[in-house]
Amino acid sequence: MNIKKLRFVLLPLVLLAIAAAAVSFWRREHAAPADSLTLYGNIDIRDIQLAFNASGRITRLAVQEGDTVAAGQLLAQLDPVRYQDAVAQAQARLASQAQVLARLEAGSRPEEIAQARAQAAAAQAALDNAESIYRRQVALAQEKFVSPQAVDNANAALKAARAELAARQQALVLAVKGPRKEDIDAARAALAADQAALALAQRELADTRLYAPQAGVIEDRILEPGDMASPQTPVYTLALANPVWARVYLPETALGQVRPGMRADITSDSASGRRIAGWVGYISPTAEFTPKSVETPELRTQLVYQARVYACNGDGALRLGMPVTVHIALHGNTPAPLAAHPCQP
């Protein structure tokens, strides 16, 4: 009798369980599509290794770890003395070459032309005198009053006077014409080279100052005043705290429903009830297995696609490594161009 009573009690329970399972299966198969997608992940940020674009000894570091810095803020300074000397040297060379070019472009001064003309006139007078002496020596030699050597000396002096006159006349022509075009062009090219050298020296002097390329938070201060710095040695690590992004993983079934540019909301346990607006910025084209730190053992073998959901973080509410929940509406959520989102990375 006990067995019969037990059967009467268990049979309805078994039938009820089968009916409940059937109803659950039917609802799952005929359920309406979900209106939103909920994903879980952690906050990640970008960082920059800041280094000088010059070599030298650090004389000043202006910020510490944890300091918030603005874009363009001075962070560190190298000893600038030798770079300042290089600038002064380049400036002097440039000034000298500028005077050379100005002299060539101005041409010959009137006084120089007058001097060349006077020298040509003096050479002409010397030639006239040499011709007179030569004629007298020839006449005296014909009368046997002077030796043939005297005639030869007078002839040589006459030739020298003619050559001197030709040289003075050419000098006068050059003085009137002024410098050659090629000389002016060469001087102008040398001036341009000196200008470039000065610009380079000024750039190297400016590189003795290290500025923040973007707003962020100093994460690490690697060097100290007195250390030698170079372009290969970082001075600071700058964390770019705005925007931040949540690393989440899309299941393959949701891959066709989520596209870059769609709006999303991010919530965290530290700010219960607050939703931070964000947007889907990236979806990996490659599938991977669910990371062990994200999902349960049953889900670790499923293929997922990494996605990044960006958000503005002006008040610093989202911090590196913080676990967050991401909500993405699947209806009426038209993707916008990524460049249209605020604080787009």
Write down the secondary-structure element order.
Answer: HEEEEHHHHEEEEEEEE
The amount of helix comes to 40-55%
Number of strands: 12
* Major beta sheet, strand line-up: 1-8-11-10-9-12
Shape, per Cα inertia axes = rod-shaped
Helical/strand content category = alpha+beta
What's the tally of helices?
A: 5
End-to-end C-alpha gap: 77 Å
Estimate nothing, just give the exact number of structural domains. 3
Please write out the topology.
Elements: H1 2-30, E1 36-50, E2 56-61, E3 68-69, E4 74-78, H2 81-106, H3 110-142, H4 148-177, H5 181-206, E5 209-211, E6 216-221, E7 228-229, E8 236-251, E9 263-268, E10 271-289, E11 303-311, E12 323-329
Antiparallel strand pairs: 1-8, 1-12, 2-4, 2-7, 3-6, 4-5, 6-8, 8-11, 9-10, 9-12, 10-11
